[in-house]
Specification:
The complex is a heterodimer of chains A (47) and B (364). Chain A has helices spanning 3-30, 39-42. With 47 residues, chain A is mainly alpha-helical. Chain B has two domains: 1-24 and 299-364, no CATH class; 50-286, Spore Coat Polysaccharide Biosynthesis Protein SpsA, Chain A. In chain B, 52% of the residues lie in helices and 15% in strands. Chain B has an eight-stranded mixed β-sheet, sandwiched between helices. Classes of the chains: A mainly alpha (47), B alpha/beta (364). At the A-B interface, helix 1 and helix 2 of A face helix 6, helix 8, helix 9 and helix 10 of B.
Chain lengths: 47, 364
C-alpha cells in the first residue's frame, strides 16, 4: 500500500472517529434500538 | 471572542488531546510510576473463587467454541460460568441446554446488555467477577493473570488486553489496519494510566472486579466497561491494565460498523457524565485530570475541528498564516475523502466477490 493511500485511510479513520462524538450525542438524544441490540453489535467492546 | 482566539483555543483542544496529554502522561509514568503487587502465578495457592459472566444475544453459532474456551482455561481455584441469554431467538437456548451440567444459564427478555449483566451478577457466588463477550477467545492463562492482581488490596479491578488481528498485520482490510493502529495508541494510553494509578475504564471483552464493589447498572447503560470500573475508582480503588491476560479478536473490516461502534462509545461517554457526575469533580475523582484529558476532551474535539476550520476560513484573507492553516485543513479533509472513496471501493469489491461466490454456488 502506498504512503498516500495509507495516509488517506488514516485521515478518514481520524475524521469518522472524531465526528462520531457528534453522531453519538444526536443518537443519545433520539434514543434507539442500536443501544440495546444484538450482541454482534455489542460484541467488540473497546470503550 | 475574536476569531483568532477561537482558532487558537480549538487548536489547543485538538493538540492537547492527541499530543499534549500523551506526552504529559508518558513523563508522569516515567517520573511517578506506582506498580501494583501481583501474585506469582506459578507459586500462588490461595486463588479466589471466580464467576465468569457472559451476556449473549443470538450467538448460537459462536457459543459452543466460546464456552469450551472459558471452561478449558487454566484456573486452580473454583470457577463458575454464567451465561445470560438476552432475548435470543436463535438456537442459543439449545446450546446452553447441552452445557447444563457446567454452565448456569439465565434467560431474560430482550432488554440490553446492562440488564443481562445485572441478571448474571445477581446469581454469581465468586469473589471475583470476570466479564467476557461471545466473540473473542482468551489466552490459556488469562484467568490466573487477571485474578493474580487481586492480592493487592488497592486493586479493585483488572482489565486484560484485547489483541486485534490487524495489530499483527493479519488483516486484508484497510479499515482493519487503521483500527489496529488506533487501538495500539489507545492501549498505550491505558498502559501509562495504569502505571500512574488507574485506567479510566476496561476492555469490555476481558475485565474483572471484586464482587463487593459491584453495583447494579442502570438499565440503559451503554458502556458497562467504563461505568463499572469508574465506580470502582470513585470508591478509591484502582483498575490495572494487565497485558498478560489476553483476549483475541478480529478488527472491524468495514468503516460503517466501526463508526457505529465508535458512535455508541462516544454516546456512552456523554451518558456516563449524567450517570456519574462525580467524575467531573476534582476532589471526588482520583483520576480527574486523566479523565478530563482522555475521555471528556474527545467529546470536544469534533467541535474544535469545526471551529478551527471556520475561524481559519474567516481569517485567511487577512494573514498568510491562517491561509496556510486553512489549506492544510482542506488538504487533510481531501485526504479523508480519498480514504472514504477507497473504503467504498474496497467494500464494493468485497460485495462483488461475495456475490460471485454465491452465484457460482447457485450455478452448481
Amino acid at each position: 500500500m502506498g504512503t498516500l493511500t495509507r495516509l488517506a485511510r488514516v485521515a478518514f479513520t481520524f475524521v469518522t472517529m472524531n465526528y462520531a462524538a457528534i453522531a453519538g450525542l444526536v443518537a443519545l438524544g433520539r434514543g434507539g434500538e442500536i443501544w440495546v441490540g444484538d450482541s454482534r453489535d455489542m460484541g467488540q467492546r473497546r470503550s | 471572542m475574536g476569531m483568532d482566539r477561537v482558532f487558537w483555543f480549538s487548536a489547543f483542544v485538538i493538540g492537547y488531546t492527541y499530543l499534549g496529554y500523551p506526552l504529559l502522561l508518558a513523563a508522569w509514568a516515567r517520573a511517578a510510576r506506582r506498580p501494583n503487587r501481583k501474585a506469582d502465578v506459578g507459586e500462588y495457592r490461595n486463588w479466589p473463587s471466580i464467576s465468569i459472566v457472559l451476556a449473549v444475544r443470538n450467538e448460537a453459532a459462536r457459543l459452543p467454541a466460546r464456552i469450551d474456551n472459558l471452561l478449558q482455561l487454566n484456573y486452580p481455584g473454583r470457577r463458575e460460568l454464567i451465561v445470560v441469554s438476552n432475548g435470543s431467538t436463535d438456537g442459543t437456548r439449545d446450546v446452553l441446554a447441552e452445557y447444563a451440567d457446567r454452565v448456569q444459564a439465565v434467560e431474560i427478555p430482550a432488554g440490553g446488555k446492562a440488564r443481562a449483566l445485572n441478571a448474571g451478577v445477581s446469581i454469581a457466588a465468586g469473589d471475583i467477577l470476570i466479564f467476557a463477550d461471545a466473540r473473542q477467545q482468551f489466552s490459556a492463562d488469562a484467568l490466573v493473570e487477571l485474578a493474580a492482581n487481586f492480592i493487592d488490596s488497592e486493586v479493585g479491578g483488572a482489565t486484560g488486553e484485547l489483541v486485534l488481528d490487524s495489530e499483527c498485520g493479519e488483516t486484508t482490510s484497510s479499515v482493519g489496519e487503521s483500527v489496529g493502529l488506533y487501538w495500539k495508541y489507545e492501549k498505550w494510553l491505558r498502559r501509562n494510566e495504569s502505571a500512574v494509578w488507574s485506567t479510566l475504564g476496561a476492555t469490555g471483552a476481558i475485565y474483572a472486579i471484586r464482587r463487593e464493589l459491584w453495583r447494579p447498572l442502570p438499565a440503559d447503560a451503554l458502556l458497562d466497561d467504563v461505568l463499572v470500573p469508574m465506580r470502582v475508582v470513585l470508591d478509591g480503588r484502582r483498575i490495572v491494565f494487565d497485558e498478560k491476560a489476553r483476549a483475541y479478536d478480529h478488527a472491524s473490516t468495514d468503516a460503517a460498523s466501526e463508526t457505529r461502534r465508535k458512535t455508541r462509545t462516544l454516546a456512552g461517554n456523554y451518558q456516563i457524565l449524567a450517570q456519574e457526575p462525580r467524575l467531573l469533580v476534582p476532589v471526588l475523582n482520583p483520576v480527574w485530570l486523566q479523565y478530563m484529558s482522555h475521555k471528556v476532551s474527545r467529546l470536544f474535539v469534533p467541535w474544535a475541528l469545526i471551529a478551527a476550520f471556520v475561524a481559519s476560513a474567516v481569517l485567511a484573507p487577512s494573514h498568510w498564516f491562517f491561509t496556510a492553516a486553512l489549506s492544510m485543513q482542506i488538504a487533510f479533509y481531501g485526504l479523508a475523502a480519498i480514504g472514504a472513496a477507497l473504503e467504498a471501493r474496497e467494500r464494493r469489491g468485497f460485495l462483488n466477490q461475495v456475490s460471485a461466490v454465491a452465484e457460482g454456488k447457485g450455478a452448481r
